[in-house]
Prior knowledge:
Layout: H1 2-15, E1 24-38, E2 44-60, H2 69-72, E3 77-89, E4 92-106, E5 112-127, E6 136-139, E7 143-152, E8 158-165, E9 173-183, E10 189-199, E11 205-215, E12 220-231, E13 240-254, E14 257-265, E15 269-279
Antiparallel strand pairs: 1-2, 1-15, 2-3, 3-4, 4-5, 5-6, 5-7, 7-8, 8-9, 9-10, 10-11, 11-12, 12-13, 13-14, 14-15
Amino acid sequence: MKLKLLSIIITAGFLTSPFALAATYQSELSAFYEDIDVTGGSEGGYSVGLEGAYYLSPVDTKNHPLAEAAFVEKASSVYINLTNYEFKESGDRLDIYHRALGVDFYIPNTIFYVGAGVNQYKSKYSLPSDESFDAASFSSKWDSSWFIKAGVAPVTGLLVWSEFEEDVDVSEQWNINGKYVIPLAGEQALNIEASYAYQDIYGASDTIRGAADYYFDRHLSLGAGFVNSSYDGDEFNDSDTRTDYFIRARNYFTDNASLELSYYDGDFENRLMLGGTIRF
């Protein structure tokens, strides 16, 4: 049933007439809802999110896939992100709140890119009442940490960068990320993403992520990817390796409005996400 939902956006994309004229935009607002099923148990939950971005100059969408225009044009921006996660099991409820404020900046007339921002997290745990105790809830304060990013964009459509977090030594956590949007014949294009992350804070682990999206035209894309995680064993845990997979599709019904759908199939959870974006 969930995979059938993914086909809706693909079919709608082919049926939509992509005759809208190329346009510019300077701000966009995105929202999503994600249903989360935890495998092998009664636990389940959802997440909802809202993100807004303002670009320091108008973004030209001409001759670009609409979803990739800001990236290819190297458009600097400021953004805000608000997300809420909720999980339930046997009446217990855990809420995790996340908010972020950041900036992405391409230094003019150079190949260099920098980014920075602040992440904040807060959690709330609720217990239902039973014969032995009354209902109770426990809430944390907001925990804040800053992050920075640095990278290079040596050719059009390519960015390679790393991210660094506050109070984390590079020897304990580091990463390298890449994204390349390659134009093909006509309005077709290919987006390739890859990343590697290592951390040794709560036990050593390596994570490799890869994804690709094929753009049938400027409006419609279909993509897939994987996340491979390896954990070193210690006196408390055995070593482990797992690979999760996902598929995703996105269609701009006009130059300024899109709908996207994705399905994530993992060893520990499955997620179905529906989202949309409006540009101004």
